[in-house]
Amino acid sequence: MRYVMRENDDPARRYATHVRGSRSGQQLVWESSPGQDVLVVQTPYERDAVDDIQEIVAGMEGMALPVDCYVEVPVKPGTWVRYVPSTSYARNDGCPLRTKACTYTVFCCQVEGDTCVVYSQQMTNTGNLPYRRIRLEVDVQVRKLTRTVGPFWNRREEDTGYYQITLPKDRMNDVCDGDVYYTVAGAKDIEIPLTRAMFKQGYVYVQTFDMPVVATRNDGLQINQ
Amino acid sequence: MKRPMDDFLCPYCFGHINHELVHFRSAKVETDPTGILPDEYDPYDEGDVRRFISRYEGPDKEKRVQRLFEWQRFAPKEDPVYQKFWREHGGETTEVDSLLKYSDVRSYNRPIIDPSSLQDRSYLKDQDGGGDVFVRDADGMVVRVELADGKRCTSRVCPHCHNPLPSGYGKHPIKFVSVIGITGSGKTVFLSQLLKDMQDYAAKVGLAADVRSAASRRFYEQDNVIAVDVPLPDPTPRDSFQQPLFYDLTRLINGRQRTDTFVLYDVAGEVFEDYQLIQEYAPFIEHSDGLIMLVDPEELRQAGEIVAGQQSMTRPAEVLNQVHTIVFHGKSDEKCKIPFAICITKTDTTLVQKMLSRELQDCLLDDVHEIVDELGYEKTVFNAREYAPIAEQLNEFIRRTERAFSLNLRTNYTTYAFFGFTALGCEVDDGVPVGPILPKRIEEPLLWLFYQLGFIGREGKYPLPNPDPIKCPNPACGSIDTVELTGDDRYYTTGWGIFKKKYEVNRLCRACGHRWMHYESQ
């Protein structure tokens, strides 16, 4: 499939805008002209695709049309695209989110033979934007591990020297390696990553006498510790 | 349940009408008097007519006189009653003449038939042989009269002002709603967008909306078209009374149909700047069962702090004062109970984005969602749950930034709520929408009024802008120093042993210690 970008010469009648999350929080919805197919572009949280679309379209050259599925653009890691026909949008009441803590941008597009034409977006001064940053809240628990020592008349809790960090397993697909890390006092410039594999496991044990602090580099992630 | 035999109000002059006392515009119009009188007599000349009657001795005199009187009765002419009403309301009628394409005679120049007049009854067909000239519908409501020659007169008019009544008007309970606001606040654009999709908006709350007048359809199809690259409508002429807009709203209650008639008035903004005009249009405000007030965000005080040189206006507060004065004829010691929807318009503009929080902007740019039942049908309820965060934030915003306006409302009105919408959802370049046109939450104030007027119920709660302080119900106390109880404090027990009883409460009076369960009335 060939991909070309064109200026949108009729934004009043060919449009896709006002992107937002659905009430359920699991779908992406937008306003578009009747029967309009759309290309959804997912990018890292801090950046939308409006200004980069030409580069993205160039990077898609030769790819099969990603109909109803997200495909990563080879030359732009972290950028995923999905072609959403108007019929799919109507049938599914929107388009499923791939992950959160990122930005989704929509573009009008149409298939002409073996060419997919993607139309550029025009920004307006209204509140209707062609992109939406989807935030994600992640609840993390950090617990000091102790053990009970001493005779039965004088039991006391003693530090084991370990902390347990509990990570939500259901957020595994929403985070990327490198997004989340922790630090400990005394070595705050050392950021130890919490990877997707750790999220899948659910627990991480850290040997330290200072409480680890979990943080993120992704502005779209909010860590609730 | 309203029966057709009850009196109803004229939507123009608000005179009381009984359905058997309506007048009709004649379906028969005699325009050509040729052949009625001999050639030497001019039927238009009164002198000639008198001479004919006194001197003509031909054998066909009686027949000619009868035809002459009939021609005079059914000739088109200006209606002095109708013209008097319109002279007092702008000078020229704004009636939509849907029959003009079929006839050269203007509808309002057609002769008026009064079935209660003996003379006019002589021209009408007796329907049942017992003297009843009316044709009624299945519910007994008068719908038409028929002339002796079979022509059907179906255009009912008010007997007081001779303005036309839509078909079926008066059969169902009627509610009047006025849309007010200063010039440029967006009333006409709002109404045009609202009426264009009224059926869809009403369907969201399980109501079937039916357009009942040509003027309603023409309002958005012809006179006030909102479209890309089409200039926005001009401001409503200040000295011209716009035709009321009629809708019938039908819902099912326990499997039975219940219909209400809804009448909307578009009141020109300049009305509130001119004392004389206020007096002319006062009856429309006075008889309103609900009010929608549009506030242009540029009128807000905070706008003056954002846009350099912008003058903050006090006119919305002045409009409130005038409405209150009209409703209570100058008495200042009563609160107005008419439900009042105050709407900030143009919520998609940069100015509003700077004034409101991101969270509120997102809410205001989202659609109004219906609530469906287990079968998937729209419930006949106002979605207060979805409206609640908007109400909470707008209440706080108005309270914080528009103190005088907020105080005016609290002092003079009992039932009001704040809304925000955009009727266009796109930029406007030199008075022309650039597009795409995406109105948002435009129907919410109307749906709230439907709830206030009893057409629909409510699901969920929303914070009131003017909650009354909760008083201690202890007769010996009555203090307003009460607090809400939460958590374990909500429970207390009395007695002991097998006589122990547990109570749940949610309110504590700090003055006397009384605890009780408070139920919010909303």
Protein described:
Chain A is mainly beta and 225 residues long. Chain A folds into two domains: 133 residues, no CATH class; 87 residues, no CATH class. In chain A, strands 1, 4, 5, 6, 8, 9 and 10 form a seven-stranded mixed β-sheet that branches. A three-stranded antiparallel β-sheet of chain A has the order 2-3-7. A three-stranded antiparallel β-sheet of chain A has the order 12-13-16. The relative contact order of chain A is 0.18. The model of chain A has no long low-confidence stretch (mean pLDDT 89). Chain B is an alpha+beta fold and 522 residues long. Chain B has three domains: 104 residues, no CATH class; 286 residues, P-loop containing nucleotide triphosphate hydrolases (Rossmann fold, 3-Layer(aba) Sandwich), CATH 3.40.50.300; 54 residues, no CATH class. In chain B, the strands form eight sheets. In chain B, strands 10-11-12-9-13-14-16 form a seven-stranded mixed β-sheet. In chain B, strands 4-3-8 form a three-stranded antiparallel β-sheet, with no helix packed on it. A three-stranded antiparallel β-sheet of chain B has the order 5-6-7, with no helix packed on it. About 1% of the residues of chain B have low confidence. The chains are: A mainly beta (225), B alpha+beta (522).
Nearest-integer average pLDDT of chain A:
89
Corresponding CATH architecture of the largest domain in chain B: 3-Layer(aba) Sandwich
How many individual domains of chain B? 3
Mean pLDDT of chain B: 87
Q: Which structural class do you get from the secondary structure elements of chain B?
A: alpha+beta
Number of helices of chain A: 3
Largest sheet of chain A: 7 strands, mixed
Poorly predicted ranges of chain A = none
Walk me through the topology.
The complex is a heterodimer of chains A (225) and B (522).
Chain A: E1 2-6, E2 16-21, E3 27-32, E4 37-44, H1 53-59, E5 71-72, E6 80-84, H2 86-92, E7 95-96, E8 102-112, E9 115-119, E10 131-134, E11 136-139, E12 141-149, E13 156-166, E14 180-183, E15 192-194, H3 196-201, E16 203-207, E17 213-216, E18 221-224
Parallel strand pairs in A: 1-9, 11-18
Antiparallel strand pairs in A: 2-3, 3-7, 4-6, 4-8, 5-6, 8-9, 8-10, 12-13, 13-16, 14-15, 14-17
Chain B: E1 8-9, E2 16-17, E3 23-25, H1 46-55, H2 61-74, H3 80-87, E4 112-113, H4 118-121, E5 134-136, E6 142-146, E7 152-153, E8 155-157, E9 174-180, H5 187-196, H6 198-203, E10 208-211, H7 214-223, E11 245-253, E12 256-266, H8 275-286, E13 290-295, H9 301-306, H10 315-327, E14 340-344, H11 350-355, H12 358-364, E15 381-383, H13 384-401, H14 403-412, E16 416-420, E17 428-429, E18 432-433, H15 444-452, E19 457-459, E20 482-484, E21 491-494, E22 501-504, E23 507-509, E24 515-516
Parallel strand pairs in B: 9-12, 9-13, 13-14, 14-16, 15-19
Antiparallel strand pairs in B: 1-2, 3-4, 3-8, 5-6, 6-7, 10-11, 11-12, 17-18, 20-23, 21-22, 23-24
